[in-house]
Design brief:
The complex is a heterodimer of chains A (about 70) and B (about 180). Chain A contains two helices and no strands. By secondary structure, chain A is mostly helical. Chain B is elongated and about 65 Å long. Classes of the chains: A mainly alpha (about 70), B mainly alpha (about 180). Chains A and B meet through helix 1 and helix 2 of A and helix 1, helix 2, helix 5, helix 6 and helix 8 of B.
Chain lengths: ~70, ~180
Amino acid sequence: MNEKQRPSGGKRPVRERTDAVGAGLRQLWTELESEAVPDAFLDLLDAIDAERQKDDDKTAPDGSGR
Amino acid sequence: MSDRTDRHAEAAFRADLVSIIPSLRAFARGLSGNRDLADDLAQEALVKAWAARASYTQGTNFKAWMFRILRNHFYTTIKVSRRFTSLDPQIAEQILTTPPNQGGGLLMADLTRGLATLSAEQREALLLVEAGMAWEEIAQMTDVPLGTVKSRITRGRTALRRYMDGPDELVLAEAEAVS
């Protein structure tokens, strides 16, 4: 059975274990990046859009500013 | 610049902001180790970026520009507020979704705990590599020499490996390195 609980346990070469760290970091990054974006971020973007719309209205109230 | 050009540039900038959100959140999470703090950091970075959009040159490295804003805010925040207490391994473990194969969950949990043991600078360097940034870009972004970046990455990886190996593997690893 398992001699150790550590996932990278045993006596594999240092290089192989370092590769496992690299692969793990890549996987960690991928998982974090693929999480669903919370609504708060969408609200923030809505606020930005509202600001842009306000600016548009200010610069071209009757279309003459375009 | 005409109004039309301004609006076009703003629309493009807004699209860039949307597309960077997942990476920005990942970077913030990796740096802070805390979901709520990370999302606060990422949102603050977006707000700051929008406010500073005039200073961004279209066509340059948007990811590096955004990450720089976020990390500057992160370091300012932890300097001002000592409520930040490194990466919380328990929280970090909870937020990870684990792959269903080959004990990957164990690896990821160990890796996350290991990240918590690194300095923020080492953690940052490792994360930026995973974000696809070149060492030179990292050096430029973090305002340190290239050699320092290489050192942080190498030492960070070594520390992570040692953490995951456990203390009893340390002697073996060092013996292998010498041989």
